[in-house]
Amino acid sequence: MSINNKQKFFYSSGAIANGVKADAFTFFLLFFYSNVIGLTPGLASLAIFIALLVDAFTDPLMGVISDRTKHRLGRRHPYFLLGMIPMSLSYFMLFSIQTSWELSQQLLFLWMLTFTLLTRLGMTIFDVPHRSLGSEMSRSYTERTSIFAAREMLGWMGGLFNAFLAYTIFFKDTPEYMPGTKNPDPWIFYGMTGATIMCISVLITFFGTRQYIQNPIQHTQVFNLKLIFQQILVALKNKSFLIFFFGYLFIAVSWGMGSSLQIYMNTIFGSSNQICWLLILEYMS
Question: Are 13 and 205 a contacting pair, CB within 8 Å?
């Protein structure tokens, strides 16, 4: 059965949730905790690093769990709603913390670490099965390519829309705060809006792709953690895989550092309006 544009949209809309999360975590999270809340940059960076390490193990694990799931809603859709709850709630909690609480550095670190972990875990529970569903919607290589191209485009648009909202609505420049990202008051509303967009995105893709629920499992295997590590070791012995892995790792580290530090440069040299247009131009380039 051929995939039309409407079906592509309903599936791809789920990527908006990841786009919102990725934009917030890449550009705003470190700045918010280190420059607005007052957590030392070292502890804020450590919280992000720990969450990324955990994410590296939970992603493949979630793939195995989803592949072996037997449920009346299929093996992908149950995790859409299951992941939406911790993902959106923890994202909101992450940006709901207030400077007036006067928490210690240890409590600030635990707050950031806990809700960063839970946000990433919720996203993993949703996003890994969602990506897998895209490969099951069609047997055609060309259609699969088109499906994932649409998915990446909507994810990119979700991140751009989140940044646009941030700089044009929540973090407007004021006489007291220039640029507006230094203002502690709007961040809770920024988090609330992002969490709402995430929920809407997941619900649209959940109900819009229900026709693809019945995907029979041809070969169901018993979950085996030992087998997973054995397969990882096999991959690590592959020279081509290692070259690709470490090459992409260095690229990702460079991109991540540049993106995270960009908001600091923008804060020093630009206003919120200038930052907004700069981000739009960068996304379009």
Answer: yes
